[in-house]
Design a protein that fits this description.
With 294 residues, this protein is an all-alpha fold. It has helices spanning 7-38, 56-62, 65-96, 103-115, 118-128, 135-142, 159-184, 188-196, 201-212, 214-229, 233-238, 250-260, 264-293.
Length: 294
């Protein structure tokens, strides 16, 4: 049986084909090739010897103590960054949802941190934390909260949280605007009905605003989780995995294994492990919020 396409279908196929071809070349091929690389023991110090090792690279990395440390650090960083970003974004969105003079100007200014390039953001916060001339030290000493300047990024107990703060400053504005758009879609009739029933401001937030925010919250949580778990630029600029292994995340381990140790096979395997972890966490968030919304 021959499949006969109409003129519109043939025209659509001809127009879509170049886009599909480009996507296959620039997206599908690199993904498949990197998976093929992860099945080989490729070390650039001996480029002519590339044995096929099946899943030994994955087994080696899963049993490596550095991988376990990186997973722990990545988990802490992701949980802190996503949680604080979401909570602050809800508060900012609630504030901007009110009508007051200068509201539109604040909406525009809110995007400035998000529009700041990641490298500029990392350098800015590195200078703020600087132990010699950093603004944070100067402010705390001026207020009498510190006796002397402190090397903030040299403290293993604080480093991960200080990097999270830099990430939150950049990521929160976009999350707030996404939630604000969701809030604008909530019918005013629901709030008026709740007021008639005698609901307080907190009760209206819990029973009206929060349930209606679930689609926006799902989008923000999934997006922020995917961004945070793969963060690399801030770690490269601010600490390079240090001090010690205090900021040794999965993305940093992939960089070290691939471009410093020149082990492209294990680096590709780590990249796929990170991708699978990202998809798993995103799926869990979508499923949890989806079931609550059902």
């Amino acid at each position: 049986m021959r499949l006969r396409l109409s003129y519109d279908d043939r025209s659509a196929a001809i127009l879509v084909f170049p886009v599909l071809a480009v996507l296959l070349v620039v997206a599908a091929y690199p993904i498949l090739y990197s998976f093929w690389v992860s099945l080989h023991d490729i070390v650039l110090t001996r480029p002519l010897r590339r044995p096929f090792v099946w899943f030994e690279n994955y087994e080696r990395m899963l049993g490596d103590a550095r991988f376990h440390t990186a997973v722990l650090r990545t988990t802490v960083y992701t949980v802190v960054t996503v949680t604080v970003t979401t909570v602050l974004a809800v508060g900012v969105a609630l504030f901007l949802n009110e009508s007051f003079r200068g509201n539109k100007l604040l909406n525009a200014l809110l995007l400035l941190p998000w529009a700041t390039p990641s490298i500029v953001n990392g350098l800015m916060w590195k200078w703020i934390y600087d132990p010699t001339y950093g603004l944070m030290n100067a402010l705390l000493v001026k207020l009498g909260l510190l006796d002397s300047y402190r090397a903030w990024l040299g403290d293993p107990d604080l480093t991960l949280f200080l990097i999270s703060n830099a990430a939150i400053w950049k990521q929160m504005p976009l999350a707030a605007l996404l939630l604000l758009v969701t809030m604008k879609a909530i019918p005013d009739d629901l709030y008026r009905a709740a007021k008639v029933d005698g609901a307080t401001v907190f009760q209206r937030f819990v029973h009206v605003t929060l349930p209606a925010l679930k689609p926006g919250l799902m989008l923000v949580l999934v997006y922020e989780t995917m961004i945070s778990i793969r963060h690399f630029d801030l770690f490269l600029i601010m600490t390079q995995g240090g001090p010690g292994d205090a900021s040794y995340t999965l993305s940093w381990l992939i960089y070290v294994e691939t471009f410093r140790s020149l082990r492209f096979g294990t680096g590709a395997a780590l990249s796929y492990l990170l991708a699978m972890l990202t998809f798993l966490l995103s799926w869990l968030v979508i499923r949890a919020l989806g079931e609550r919304n059902a």
